[in-house]
Amino acid sequence: MRRVFLAAWLAACGGTTGSNLVSFRAMVGGAADASAPLSFDNGKGYHVSLTRALLHVGAVYLNESNPNPGAGPGPCILPGIYVAEVFGPVTVDLLSPALQPFPTQGEGTETPAKTAEVWLTGGDINAQTDLTVIFDVSGTATKDGATYPFQATSHISDNWAIPVSNPALPGANPICKQRIATPIQVDFTPTDGGLLTLRIHASGMFQDVDFATLGPANGSSTLEIPDGPVGAGLVLHTGLLSAFGVYELSWSG
Amino acid sequence: MPLVRNERVLSSRRVSIALVIALGAVALRSFAQTAEHVRPPAVEKKVDATFPTQGLGSRSQVKVVVRVTVATDGTVVDPEIVESGGPAFDAAVLDAVRRWKFRPALRGDVPVPSRIRIPFLFVPPAAAGAAGSLDGGVAAPPVAIAEDAGVPAAVVSSVDGGIAAPVPDVTQRPASEGSEAAPAEESVRGRADGGEEVIEVTAATHRHVPTRGTSDFQIETAQLAEVPRGNASEFLKLAPGVLLTNEGGEGHAEQVFLRGFDAREGQDVEFSVDGVPVNESGNFHGNGYSDTHFIIPELVQSLRVLEGPFDPRQGNYAVAGSAEYHLGLSERGLLAKVSDGRYGTRRALIAYGPPGSSAGTFAAAQLYQTDGYGQNRDGHSASAMAQHEARNGSSLYRVTAQAYTASFHTAGVLREDDFAAGRVGFYDTYDFLQGEDAARYSIAAAVESRTDRIAFTNQVFAIYRPLRLREDFTGFLLDVQEPDQRAHAQRGDLIDLQVKETTLGARGSARLSGEWLDLQQQIELGYFARHDIASGFQQRIEAATRAPYLTEANLDSNLDDIGLYADANLRFLPWLALRGGFRADLFTYNVQNLCAVRSVEHPSPTSPEPDVSCKTQEGTLGAHREPNQSASTASSTTMPRASVIVGPWAGVSFSASYGRGVRSIDPVYITQDRATPFASVTATEAGMTFEGTILPDVRMAFGTAIFRTHVDQDLIFSQTAGRNTLAGGTTRVGSASAVRLSGPVFDVSVNGAYVHATLDDTGLLIPYVPDLVLRGDGAVFTDLPWKILNLEGRPARITFATGITFVGRRPLPFGTRSDRIFTIDTNLEVGWPILRVGLSVTNLLDSQYRLGEYNFASDFHSQSQPTLVPVRHFAAGAPRALLFTITTNFGGSP
Question: N or C: which end of chain B has fewer CB within 10 A?
Fold first, then answer.
């Protein structure tokens, strides 16, 4: 019994409840090889050259659930699964490789993160109306000798509200889902004092945009990408929320 | 382990002596003077005589009568044996009676010496097992108060100048029961020959059960009752390893940590008050919820804390142990106490103990209100308790009634990052709707009777307990947008819980005493029965409209617990005792879930139920069903419990204990025919105690133990659920120690416990359970020497009491540790029995400490985006507070 007592005494001097709370820094910027102008070829055969690309990021979250792109309708937030968060807002110049810091320190736990979420919001993620400019972009797309100067000023507001199609599921498509890019696959564990780096590849947003749908080529006026779920506007918005090829997260330290 | 009791120190040996105190008044003034009013002396401090070792083989009672002179200062002088019981017994009596203290006899207002005759009755352990052992020693002489002592009273004669002389004859009312002599009537009669008239006074107390080892603390509050305590739960701190926190506010049940257990508000500690259970079965906030705020602290006469399930009498919820309060009002007469202090705190108490009756007969009521410190901590409460004890021959009857109601607000928890950033103050709140409304009404009746060899007890009780609780741990986090809900933002997480519970029950026992191996043996058979009718209803409240928007639970439960136990108290040798037996309980559940379906994967598109909490659809395309679902189950368990006690030798005893206990499962987890709706605990312990006189007039009681406890299904509090949730198995290993020193002018208790508590599956520490808890309680007291301060012949008395708490850094979720807690509470009181003034200061150092600390996720909209990851939260401890109190006592014999 004496050994039990001594073992208990020594054991009680240490021990943990597991994991740890962590604080970390977070930086965001364009692709590591970004430049102004940023030129690339998209999946529709266009050579795109961006002269301006500013993205408004509201927050980044990491959670411990495995990515499930095919998951059915569900809430935007599932309490209990988040392992890290860092808040903006921060407006990112996607044409610059320079990293800029988030305005606040990130908080989290030393728990493996499997999925990331990038919140493109100016305020309340559930607000029907949000007049924040989320994406401000301009450039030129060329294909087969045709040139399409374009620009887009995107909001994610009630213009993106999806009407209720199933009366049994009136909340299946909340506005918050139009503002969250997820599930972005990650595989690292936050540590105290570490650095979360987010690089955003503008090229990935335009992969499926068919600029010919914007209007006639070689015109004198700049073509406007619709700010809403129409044509190229819908495609660009899908690109903004894409879980693949757009957002790249890494951890160091 | 025994502790000091009423300035008497219990022997470390098992004791059971019937002690009868009888005081009588001598009659008749023989001359023509007008008879002055004469009051006989009254006992203020009595010391039980220790049953001498040499007499342990005696099978019959031994009577010793001693005559003493009570001096004008109340001390005992010149004791002389009048009727001998033998040298050993005579010596024991003389040793004890020299330490007695009286209020001296008064002729008018003048103290006069008096002579009294006091019989001591030594009853061998078997017969006095009815009185029970007080300190649990084996070979030690029993020292107990008999419950049925009906021996002739002592005789009092007053003495002038040390010369025996005829003294005023006083007529006493036949004293029924009481620890002190009944006060004299003013009329005088007596015998012309100066003979002595007797007054019979018997001391009726609660039966003390045989100790179960080192961790069996039978605590008399005594002078340590002067240490500031906000409520009756704080008396638990007199036992080692107890930490009390409270994130729910001043009127909310305390969260109890006991020897490595987070018992929450009582789930793992069996609470009772004179046999009436306090734990609430079926309380949705936590099955076993125990709120002791209805107990008026001045009525707590003693407390038995048994850490571990080692006594077959312990029932449901005795996982970490049990706490049994015994009520009594030692200060007889009409007591009135008024307090006023900081933060608008006011309290008024009146209590009445009819002089001449036992401490178990009383009536008391208190009113309390406070504005609270900081935000949202105001409250009101009222409590009334009444009890009547009466004897009829060898039977003792007791009827107890109790009423309590309270309403208060609570501040809840704050985020550490918000406090650090200056967004909230240390004593602020996020949600002003938090609070609690509670009431409790109970009535109980008990009878204790005995024949020559068998003692019987029976008790019935009825309790009604409504409760409404509003708590907000998480702010705006949990109201996620579900597909079958209309679009909404986060509406708020405030929990509004309503519970109503009616409990009917009974308990009883029969204890047979006999002889075997020339030693006294006992066997007790007992039963316990309890039926609970509980309804629990929990909703979430929208912050903007204060309207409920979600029903999370709606349960009606009928719960039954019937238990039988057999307990043996066997002595194989004078220094070797085996105590224990078995307890068997049958738990039955009949639960009606009125909100059984809260989500449907594929609701009907033609008959949708958006926003409906309790759905009438299920399965594919929302087939119809009723919203309710019934479930019933039953299961029984048998729990062996045993203790071996060896000694004492020179006051030292050794013990080892083993026991199994259960905690019934929350009705919300019941499924049809689930086999075992309870969690099982297995506990072992080994320890050592010492009790004895270490210096003249200084007694010490010391105990130390090591223990191991395993629970197969533990409960961990979930802030998101706002209630306890099932976890896996857990194990606790540790040690606990306690020492109490008492002398003529001081009473000091120090205890501590160190525990290593882990989850079985991961080996990780159980969060929130403190590793190290240290507690010190002390009181120093003396009569002031300046006669100018005397009032009614009584000197002024000064008492200084203090309570010191230290808690080490507790493990929190996510590998962190809390801050340490160190607080000092003090109380200074000066006065006479008829009038006293006191000043108490709690948190003397005015430290800004975190009473509770937690790591979990919450979102109180304090930052730009939802805060979804766990961070530190805390419940603020109370700042320094002063409370001024005036106490008066009329018409009693304090």
Answer: C
What is the tens place of the pLDDT at every residue in B675-687? 666 788 999 999 9
pLDDT tens for each residue of A8-28 = 444 445 778 778 899 999 999
CA distance B382 to A114: 54
CA distance B492 to chain A (A): 14
Torsion of CA B225, B229, B234, B238, to 10 degrees: -40
For Cα atoms B424, B428, B429, give the angle at the middle one, nearest 5 degrees.
Answer: 100
Average pLDDT value for chain A: 90
Interface list for A 86-125 with B (CB within 8 A) = 87-89, 104, 107-110, 119, 121, 123-125
For residue B3, give how far its alpha carbon lies from the nearest alpha carbon of chain A (Å). 24
Q: How far is Cα B845 from Cα A209, in angstroms, rounded to an integer? A: 69
pLDDT tens, position by position, A108-145: 999 999 999 999 999 889 888 999 999 999 999 999 99
Closest residue in A to B870 (Cα) is A108
Inter-chain contacts counted by CB atoms under 8 A, chains A and B: 165
For residue B32, report the phi and psi dihedrals to the nearest 5 degrees.
Answer: -80, 5
B:330-369 residues touching chain A, CB 8 A cutoff: none
Give residue A180's identity as a one-letter amino acid code: I
Cβ <8 Å between A110 and B417: no
Q: Are B339 and B324 in contact (CB under 8 A)?
A: no
User: What does the block give as tokens for B799?
Assistant: 């008492």
Cβ-Cβ contacts under 8 Å, A59 against chain B: 864-865
Q: Are B356 and B43 in contact (CB under 8 A)?
A: no
One-letter amino acid of B852: G
Mutation to test the B interface, candidates A2, A3, A17, A129, most B Cβ within 10 Å = A17
Closest chain A residue to B858, measured at CA = A79
pLDDT tens track for A215-240: 888 777 899 999 999 999 999 999 99
**Local structure of B674: helix, strand or coil:** coil
Rounded CA gap, B739 and B749, in Å? 6
* Interface touch B610/A124, C-beta < 8 Å: no
The ipTM of this complex is 0.90
Q: What is the residue whose two structure tokens read 């929130």?
A: B768
Residue type, A61: Y
pLDDT digits (tens, 9 = 90+) for B762-785: 899 998 888 999 999 999 999 888
Which residues of B, range 455-474, sit inside 8 Å of A by Cβ? 474
pLDDT at B304: 92
DSSP conformational letter for B104:
P
Instruction: Give pLDDT tens digits for A82-117.
Output: 999 999 999 999 999 999 999 999 999 999 999 999
- For residue B208, the model assigns a pLDDT of 55
Burial of B858 (0-12, 13-18, 19+ CB in 10 A): buried
